[in-house]
Predict the 3D structure of the following.
Amino acid sequence: MIDAVLQTLLNGAASGGVYALVALGYTLVFSVLGVINFALGALFSLGGYVTYLLMGGRISANGALPGWGLPLGLPFTPALLLAALLTGLASLLVERLAFAPLRRRGAEPLLYLITSLGAGLVLVNLLQMLMGAEGYAFPATALAGLPDALQVAGARIRSVQVLLLAVCTAAVIALTLWLERSRSGRALKAVAEDATTARLLGIDSEAMLRLAFLLSGALAGLGGGLIGVSISLPGPYMGIGYGLKGLAVLVLGGLGSVPGAIAGGLLMGLAEALVPADASGWRDALAFAILFLVLLLRPRGLLGRRQVEKV
Amino acid sequence: MPQRPAPWPAGSVATAYHPPSLAGSLTSSPATTLPARPSWRERGALRLSALLAAGVGALALLGQQAEPAARAVPPADAPNGALTIGAVIALTGNANLYGQDQRVGLSLARQWAQSRPRQPGEPPLRPLHFQLQDGGSDEATAIAGFNLLIRQGVLALIGPTLSQQAFAADPIAQRRGVPVVAPSNTARGIPQIGSFISRVSAQSSVIAPLSISEALRRDPRIRRVAVFYSQDDAFSTSETAIFQRTLRARGLTPVSVQRTQLADNDFQIPITAALQADPQLVVISIQAVGGGNLVRQLRELGYRGPIVVGNGMNTANIYPICQRWCDGILIAQAYSPELDTPINRRFRELLRRSSPDHAPSQITAQAFTAYQVLFEAVQRLQRRGGLQSVSLGQARKALMAELLAGTYDTPLGPIRFTPDGELVQGRFYVAEVRMDPGGRSGRFALVRETASGDGAQ
Amino acid sequence: MIDHGLLVQMLIGALLGISVYLPLATGQLSLATPAFYAVGGTLAALLSTRWAALGARVDGSFPLPSFLLELVLGGALAGLLALLVGRLVLRLQGIYLAIATIALVEIVRVAILNLPFTGGAVGIFGIPQPFPTAAGYLPPALALLLLAGWVCQRLEVMALGRAMAAVREDELAARCMGIATTRVKLSAFVLSAVLAGSTGALAAHFLNTWNARQGSFDTAVTMLAFVILGGSRSWLGPVLGGLLLTALPELLRPVGDVRLVLFGLVILLGPALFPQGLVTPALLERLGRWGEGSRP
């Protein structure tokens, strides 16, 4: 009995960690700009593919350059970090193409939805053209030395899931610490809370905005690389599902709330782990049903701030 | 002294900044004002709607084209004597993985047809053109592809990739009287769409039971079976029904049935649930990448028993995913690369020469076969004079009759059709995956060849 | 270039565009249209294949009155559902409403996939045909579009339409003016659902088959793009957007595999070039004044 509970907790935490990572990616941009970057799911895919290429993986038969690969073979950890950085840079490019032109014109926020979705569509289809639609597995060196699974008091969990959970936790803690302690992190928070005051304090909010995009892309890239090592790269659409779940988690926790995104991710992961086998077909609906109910009871999410309506 | 605000560049965040609170009024636009003169605007709206209606009307008129079916088929030696075979397969969207393999198969078949040795005294062939259109992964795009090619006057069609697309697009070909050969539709009821619809992809009801039999032959003491299938995939759901029926017929009730989704790749939760029932055999109906992940995760989580997988995993694409963990899984196949016949050797040779990176797969072989049967039927019809002084519509009808009447020696083995277009395939195969020591690539090693009771011979 | 089948798909796109536009005309970003579209389509698919009284014949043909009845029933069921759900979700604001409606779309999709009578992943096929060719679907689709356009145009001078505009500009102010904002928003939501449900019933026959994939998050996004690129300030915007964006991927066929990349680029760059969409109030005003000289 206790084993089953522990197993469920472990399962839930492992998938919840990734949801939280994606939700944090949304949160960063949302808190500064007040809009949702729908290209995040595609950036998640990109992170997976870049990690694969950096580790020396080759493009297979259906891609644009069959047999081509980068002339490097980085070990997993540096490849993952470099891929996160590169995905962050790609996210800056998305900002430049999909967000900046609209910001300059002062367009309605609704338009950002469409342009960022367009950016995601372009990115996913470019990936498909370059890499083909087949699945890719990371080189076997990725997890060399790790056992297949770990035994935790009667529960079994794949060691890659433990790794995933550990990296997600580390990333979340690092991000929180950075936001609370560092000068630039506090500046970002200041812009998120009140742009006008931040400007009076001499904070370059344009730079903060770019920083938010960079970090959000890096988180998505990190998630993509981690998922890639766990379940391989099932195709360029892999990030879209995580993007959608992350969105549900984001709203569940409350838009723009960092603790909310983390709590929401874990809650969503656990709820999915608790679905009994007979009803597993309904699992995907469960996440959204919970979201639906939470929104009806707390229209601003679990940990969202109640805002004063402006007249 | 108050701090001076930083100089603010024009067009920066400040002018367009939307704090989170504004998300509450997502659509408020600062740019527009309330309508000043609704009457002008109303008149403008009426004019624009009239314009749009006229545009739609014009498109409807332009779209009205002469029915190509009434055109006469030119003689074979005329400069425009070539007839066209069209194919609509998934080159975009998430079924692209299959579409790419099918594109390879179709191109090999065309090379085969062009390089075929001519028998002495054989009359000249009817030249064939080939038109490939993207059918996407959704119903609407497949319909559009079918319409486009039918309008261009194709003689016959190959496609579409997915069964759901076939249920949308095939009725159109049926109504227009255009023969369709489906290279990969395995759902029940496809040939029953109409008299012009046939397929070269064997139904799972024929193939699936073979691998279960093989597993039970190896270990007759198996009593506890766990079943996994992806529930939003048409192919997997119909296949698992066959698997489960076969199990029941053997007196085995699954101890655990796990439903997953096409997009799922992390199976920790369903595996944990299934392993609690302590299965002795695992039966999987999931598409390639997801299935590869499931096999790998099953092994990682400690399952050691036999695994039977369905036809969705009948592709070399699974090797890099489940790596060394693939070793030993059982699969029933409609195509075996190891079949030693002249046509299969030719198929493999062409594949090796044109795309050395491609492993020979069932879906490629089936696409090859779809073109091959059409090619052979056209040439038989041509020899018998069935394409002389007929209209395209009559030629299509004659071709369908010719197609169903023939027998074919294909890379899949000998095949023919039932009168309603269902495939009758002579041989099926059970293979076991054997991975190379490195665990990066492997092969489907043939373990048993079965002649189906209703053989083609 | 554009055949009748594609033209019908374009008209369906225009209808769905209007369906997303209607809640937006009250300032509510609802993406629930695919859910109602799926409900209408599923109902039509079930009725025409299972209910013999509607008169589906063995040769696959279907009486026209039964088809029209399905359009009405599809709209009615979707409207009823919208009435129930709308009371709950319309309390939400902005992006929260958008996400809640995406959740609704996903719940409806999984429900259609899992319910015992909707055919699972394969869906319902062999849907009987009221018309022998695609051209037959043009009159009903066009009639539905004209009806929807007429209603939208009438709304501009009706009290409800004016109230919708007021709620869109400033909900709080509208409430202070004594407008029953909830009722106004609910009316637009239900109208939108009725239109989507009827369109779904039409599409089910046109597509010959119906399954859970027809109403998904992706479709919601595409429909929103119709409105944004066409222009969200007049019902003609989504009509134009729906017509153009449905045709675009088909017209891009000659460029081959990159066509979806180009389609994405249009969605990515379109709003920057036309922030208010193609059909703007200013454009309509200019069009209205056209030929009037410079008379004020």
Remarks:
- Chain A has one domain: 2-297.
- Confidence is low (pLDDT under 50) at residues 307-311 of chain A.
- The longest helix of chain A spans residues 2-33.
- Residues 4 and 155 of chain A are 7 Å apart (CA to CA).
